[in-house]
Amino acid sequence: MATSTPSTTPASTLSGTAQALVAPGKGILAADESLPTMVKRLARIGVESTEDTRRSYRELLFTTPGLADTVSGVILFDETMRQRSSTGAFLPEILAGAGILPGIKVDAGTVPLAGAPGELVTQGLDGLRERFAEYAALGARFAKWRAVLRVGPLLPSSACVEANAHALARYAALAQDAGLVPIVEPEVLMDGSHGTERCAEVTRQVLRQVYAELARQHVDLASTLLKPSMVLPGTTSPEAEQVSDDEVAARTIAVLRDTVPASVPGVVFLSGGQSPQQATARLDALNRLGVHQPWQLSFSFGRALQAPVLDAWRGEPENVAPAQAVLAERARLTGAARRGCYERTEEPAVPEPLGPGAGG
């Protein structure tokens, strides 16, 4: 597992914040679902998405006892950044009071990339400097911007890779100017029939371009985090049912060693369309194999942490405590994987994977 000497850098500095987010044994809860995504998530458990139900669910997550033991930061959505809890406290204040750093998703989603059929580029740079100033005043300490890259025989195109890398770098420079740590998320999507080797090839291409653009924009890498997808076969590939956790870890670390500078404090993997058990087991394999790597190997999981909680809650007030117990246990297991000491035998029955395009 990845180890490091505890940092003496004050958490009030950008590099100190970045190191605090990937402190040994800890990682990030991605709770930055947009309003349309929340409609889908809540509909799955038979709950209507209203401001009150969304607030109740977020409050459930953020007030879970002991969450700060394994969660260093939470990525929020714009609405959540401004919401008050049932007690009248702002939700970011509840997190900060528990010793958890509030962060904010700032991209505005994807749109078709002109001249590149089937490919996407992330928008949201217009007015971002002003939005960053507002979010910093609301208590945000870090930010996230997600780019998505589709894999195919001829995808992604160089134009798509370059456009998304440039946007990520512009965002990161603006975040640091505003005093926020940027999480850079170039997600290579699992959707498709590509094999593991093709995923590794595309991930290597994307990360090389991202770090070239970050250098051009004079981004301080010591005050950034990388949020990549693991190197995985496509969901409809014959390899999808055969690839081992150790192979995923080995291929992922090989790509990172080729592309990610040692000055980056940590890599916080997204869970993508993996089940909670798959994402946790592969994070564990990464930390077992990656003990001598220069970066902390951590997590920024969304649905891999939240899906079991939603199933336990189902919008019922009497289910809040049981749902929080589920989150605490899921976070404990993920924290164990973060240290390379996760035991899959502790898991309940394994459900089906969450499916392609699940995010987080």
Word description of this protein:
Helix 10 packs antiparallel against helix 11 and helix 10 runs parallel beside helix 12. The chain has twelve helices and ten strands. It has a single domain, classed as TIM Barrel, CATH 3.20.20. The N terminus and C terminus are likely disordered. The chain starts with 13 loop residues before the first helix and ends in a 22-residue tail after the last helix. By secondary structure, it is of the alpha/beta class. It is 42% helix and 14% strand.
How many distinct beta strands? 10
Give the CATH topology: TIM Barrel
Distance between the termini: 22 Å
CATH architecture: Alpha-Beta Barrel
Structural class: alpha/beta
The main sheet orders its strands as 8-7-6-3-2-1-10-9
**CATH homologous superfamily assignment:** Aldolase class I
**Largest beta-sheet characterization:** 8 strands, parallel
Overview features:
360 residues; TIM Barrel; two-stranded antiparallel sheet; 12 helices; globular; disordered N terminus; disordered C terminus
Secondary structure layout plus pairing:
Elements: H1 14-21, E1 27-31, H2 35-44, H3 51-62, E2 71-76, H4 78-82, H5 91-97, E3 101-105, E4 110-112, E5 120-122, H6 128-137, E6 142-149, H7 158-177, E7 181-188, H8 196-216, E8 225-226, H9 245-259, E9 266-269, H10 276-289, E10 296-301, H11 303-313, H12 320-338
Parallel strand pairs: 1-2, 1-10, 2-3, 3-6, 6-7, 7-8, 9-10
Antiparallel strand pairs: 4-5
Helix pairs in contact: 7-8, 8-9, 9-10, 10-11, 10-12, 11-12
EC number: 4.1.2.13
Family: Belongs to the class I fructose-bisphosphate aldolase family.
Protein name: Probable fructose-bisphosphate aldolase class 1
